[in-house]
Amino acid sequence: MLEYGALKLPDINCVAREYFVFFLVISASVEFVIKPYVSKDCFVLMYQRKLEEVIERKRRHLREREAIIRDKANDINKANEIISKLQGDNVAFHSEVKLALRAVTA
Fold it and tell me: Per residue in 12-65, pLDDT tens?
């Protein structure tokens, strides 16, 4: 067990403690506490893995948002078709009403 004040890190290899160490770096923003326990290469690899995970999450989120936008665009197109049909029906109805009024007044 490695100790630094109240901080205790398990005495295990780099890969096994990378998540714990990365959490400490992100949450406390104190790289200097971590440096005695993790080599620069190991830290770079950990940081690179975390960035790759974040990038993959963002890509997944982007794909989900694009799918939502496609669905909404399809819904809007369907709504526009319905509106066009109703407008056509409305014009036809008004024509019938005008013809009926002319027939009544004539």
Answer: 455 445 555 555 555 445 444 444 555 677 778 888 888 999 999 999 999 999
Structure token pair of residue 67:
């799918």
> How far lies 35's CA from each of 15, 25, 27, 39, 91, in Å?
15, 10, 15, 7, 77
Rounded Cα distance between 67 and 71, Å, is 6
Asked whether 41 and 72 are in contact (CB, 8 A), the reply is no
Question: What distance in Å separates the CA atoms of residue 34 and residue 31, rounded to the nearest whole number?
Answer: 5
Going from the C-alpha of 63 to that of each of 24, 59, 60, 87, the distances in angstroms are: 31, 6, 5, 36
Strand partners, 85: none
Length of the chain counted residue by residue = 106
